[in-house]
Amino acid sequence: MDHFEVFGLPRRLGIDAAELQRAFYELSRRSHPDFHQAAPPERQAEILEASARLNAAYRVLRDPIARVEYLVRLEEGRDTKEGATVKPKAPPELL
User: Fold this and answer.
1) 32 is in which domain, residue-wise?
2) Quick check: is 34 in a domain?
3) DSSP state, residue 76
4) Would you say 80 and 90 are in contact if contact means Cβ atoms under 8 Å apart?
5) pTM over 0.85
6) Tell me, what CATH number does 55's domain have?
7) In this structure, is residue 5 part of a structural domain?
8) pLDDT in tens, 13-49
């Protein structure tokens, strides 16, 4: 799942910043570690990891330059974790 899917946004350069922020706050409330302190340690570790991924995705998408770089990596077919590449094909709806 890419960052855009996490927030339910279309994969494009121009995104609605207010919609991104609203989705981030909604998801943050559900997955913030402070709200799961009574959970078993294994579950707390999962929640902490999910919260960290959510924060990282938000930081990338709210920054226009980081968003462009991320979109380019996605459209080139690079796996953001492994760096694998395939031939780039930029769809016209990207802009």
Assistant:
1) 15-94
2) yes
3) H
4) no
5) no
6) 1.10.287.110
7) no
8) 999 999 999 999 999 988 888 777 788 888 888 888 9
